[in-house]
Amino acid sequence: MVSSKRFKLLFCALGIFVCYFYCGMLHEKITRGQYGDEKNPEKFTYMFTLVFFQCIVNYLFAKTIFLTVFKQGEDTTPKSYYAIAALTYLLAMVCTNMALRFVSYPTQVIGKAGKPIPVMILGVLLGNKVYPVRKCLFVFLVVIGVALFMYKDGSPMKKSTEGQSVFGEVLLLLALTMDGITSAVEERMRAEYNSKSGHMMLNMNLWAAVLSGSVTIVSGELFDFIQFLHRYPYISWYIAMFAIAGACGQYFIFLTIVEYGPLRCSIITTTRKFFTVLGSILIFGNALTNRQWLGTFTVFAGLFLDSMYGRDKSSKKNTVK
After folding, report:
1. Which strand (E) or helix (H) includes residue 217?
2. Quick one: which of 130, 183, 258, 280 is 20 to 30 A from 154 by CA?
3. Across the chain, how many H-helices and E-strands are there?
4. Burial level of 266, CB count in 10 A (0-12/13-18/19+)?
């Protein structure tokens, strides 16, 4: 029985590693790849369309899984909560995708690893949460690591390149802010309506698909994207595999949380992010300086310590609804 449970945990961990590693490599290939010849190079700029397909696949996958394998009962959460959470969830994904046009994938992963920072701040402001000192210290360690990684050296650099890098980092900051708001809204849904994770995944992806689909049609991006596919039909395979790998990764994360709890899931996801950074460096040649390596190890040390010792210790003040 014990060996069977360990094997299942190993299977879940392997599923998370493989799905998100593959998803991450495809993400970088799609958004940072150069299309066409050297004389007329093109970049992939259809971020709302990419998110739209991702949300559609996530929704269909969640609908299939949670109606067959994981049944969580009736959902009493108001649609307005899902719509608000989906909007911030959508904006976070779009900003993250756009940032990859200006920064490397390791920079994106390290920047997004700072998610606990806005989550804590907005948890205090919107959710009346109180965090223990040691959790604050672990998150501060993440802040130091991100600062070390993002710090610009005094070496000569073209102003245009530096400006693009800064713009990408601003987009990552906006994505983190949206992640923090999303987490605060999700906490409120759990507190007020005991919302289940399966219902959240299903409804948030549905609303995000509706919102992103509307933007792509109104802005004309969808039609430009279709023309792009006609010029480079092979990218449709990358996008399909990217969306499917992301949906499968979400399934393994949900399965791990249900079977083994959020602690082990957090440790697994933190570890896989580190190996995704290594994969990006080895496959795409995104070299890091010694200072950035130090920042990387500092960030993941803070995340790992927070996973091990910083959870389930927070409490709430008396909330006035």
Report:
1. helix 197-219
2. 280
3. 12, 4
4. buried
Instruction: Compute the distance between CA of residue 205 and CA of residue 54 in angstroms, rounded to an integer.
Output: 9
In the block, residue with structure tokens 């449970």: 5
19, 248 in Cβ contact below 8 A? Answer: yes
Over residues 241-296, the pLDDT tens digits come to 999 999 998 888 877 876 776 667 777 887 888 888 888 888 877 888 888 899 99
Q: What is the DSSP letter of 70?
A: -
153-201: pLDDT as tens digits:
655 444 445 556 888 889 999 999 998 888 888 888 888 888 887 788 8
**β-bridge partners, 130:** 315
Tell me the sheet residues that pair with 129. Answer: 316
Q: Max Cα separation, the chain?
A: 63
Contact call for residues 287 and 98 (beta carbons, < 8 A): no
Three-class DSSP category at 303: helix
Alpha helices in the chain (DSSP H): 2-32, 47-68, 79-99, 105-112, 116-127, 133-150, 159-193, 197-219, 221-231, 235-260, 262-284, 290-309
Question: What is the H or E stretch that residue 99 is in?
Answer: helix 79-99
For the chain, how are helix, strand and coil distributed in percent, rounded to 5?
80, 0, 20
- Rounded CA-CA distance 195/237 in Å is 35
Backbone angles phi and psi of 41, in degrees to 5:
-75, 150
Supply the Cα-derived Rg of the chain in whole angstroms. Answer: 20
What whole-number distance in Å separates Cα of residue 13 and Cα of residue 5? 12
Buried b (16+ CB within 10 A) or exposed e, 24-39: bbbbbbbbbeeeeeee
Residues forming a β-bridge with 228? none
Whose tokens are 């279709």? That residue is: 226
Q: Are 297 and 141 in contact (CB under 8 A)?
A: no
Residue with tokens 């093109």: 42
